[in-house]
Design brief:
Layout (H helix, E strand, L loop, with lengths): L11 H15 L34 H4 L1
Length: about 60
């Protein structure tokens, strides 16, 4: 079985939304005292190559035994 993925340039709106979601997630909950201020994503680059995917028939079996 094989897959072909197109990895286009993501839209500015996608980048904006992704940054907002990451900022929210990274600042959720209590932070260790060494982090004095909020964490902020200032740049997000998705790259130009599709990520390598790995599949397995027995993925996560240790969680379901």
């Amino acid at each position: 079985m094989s897959f072909t993925f197109n990895w286009p340039r993501f839209s500015d709106q996608f980048h904006y939304d992704a940054i907002q979601m990451l900022n929210t997630a990274l600042n959720k909950g209590n932070k260790p005292p060494i982090i004095a201020d909020k964490i902020e994503v200032v740049e997000l680059e998705m790259g130009t190559q599709v990520p390598t995917l790995s599949t397995s028939v027995h993925a996560f079996t240790e969680h379901y035994v």
